[in-house]
Amino acid sequence: MKTDQTGVSTAPDPGEGPKSAPSMVHHRTPAERAAVGKAARSKSPRELHTAWEPSGDRPDPVDLLEAQAAARIPELVPIRYGRMLASPFAFYRGAAAIMAADLASMPNTGLHVQLCGDAHLANFGGFASPERELVLDINDFDETLPGPWEWDLKRLAASLEIAGRERGFDARTRRRLVLAGVGEYHRAMREFAGMRNLDLWYLHLDPAALQSRWGMSAKPKAMKALQADFAQGYHRDNRRALEKLTARVNGQLRIVATPPLIVPIEDLLPDVEQDQFEETIRAFIRRYRPSLQPDRRRLLESFQYAHLARKVVGVGSVGTRAWILLMLGRDDADPLFLQVKEAGASVLEPYLTRSVYANHGQRVVEGQQLMQAASDIFLGWDRAPVGLDGQSHDFYVRQLWDWKISADVAVMAPGELQVYGKMCNWTLARAHARSGDPIAMAAYLGKGEAFDAALAEFAVAYADQNERDYQALVAAVKNGRVRAETGI
User: Fold this and answer.
1) How far apart are CA 316 and CA 479, in angstroms?
2) pLDDT per residue as tens digits for the range 373-383
3) pTM, full prediction
4) Is 332 exposed, middle or buried (CB count within 10 Å of its CB: 0-12, 13-18, 19+)?
């Protein structure tokens, strides 16, 4: 194993196989770890995080989006652009590659954690833990990679400013939202720095903890609205998916077509090719099983494949290869829906380092398990030719619906958005503390508000940049440079 400059063990070298003897992990004292954080202030003073000024050679934002599109399903790319055109916040959701290039041009602290890579407000939400509790956590890890902790925090802070603009909040209100969010990250990291390792590892956020941590300081109406949002998750399970997504065809359960968003395999391939592809899918399920824990592997083996369909997902992910699989257990009333989603290289890799994992599905899965307090029991990965293009691609697998829910930022009042922003920032801090050094990061942040104020200024400047980039996409569609399909 390697240790980064914070003294925290990191992922193995690419050349380290499962039989390689791990090297010794260096353990620093709390005082030494705090000294690392304070020393990082000299390299990257907290006030420097205020500035955002695009350089003269800044990459064209549409070029970066088009570079991503080259590896995607061509007929779905216009849907991605159409969804990004919905608003500057929708654009931001699909612009992780653009912001990665921008963050790489700025000074960084050198204190590394496992990054989410796309930490905006819409990538947090609720889902079921293995213990059947609703937990609130980060829920998207397609871009996860080790890197400077503040990259995630800057993306989250800017998303608060952008969301506030979309809701029509004035500048003072937006600044208050960003300061409250970043301040929560700051306070949480200082709290985590004083916790015992196991206590920190077991820490998680559920609706009760949400109420106890922020309920007293928030308006009752805001807390009630937020809790109502997450309560909907209890109804989004495999049985609900069966009702919503399937129908009987010739006596058999089949996923219903709602093109172009959900397209069953029989509508994509003729009979003979369909049969061959479904055999490939069955082989994929068998090959993916070893990436699960043995007990969960046994559970998966109790389900059999029934049907599949291609599904369009998200905003930034539109155009990647994604399938939903219907699996059946003891009978037709015992469903399991799995999502098989393509994993490409992280948008951070050109600016940090290549993933140590040969399979990007494994990169996503292991990054997710490291950052989340609890993860889907069927979360796994494999590489297979299940993309309809004859080529093998990396994929990761998870349940489609398992109490999964996201708060609707587009309708939140200021009080609700403030609580939600605090929740997201606390969650991000906890995820970073699990993989990085909370003592070093807390020492860097210090006791004052210099860093918080700097990120509030950055959020405004980068929201302005996001609006310019959004307009660049609008212009590219108008002049025919790219094609967009809206309303899908």
Assistant:
1) 22
2) 999 999 999 99
3) 0.93
4) middle
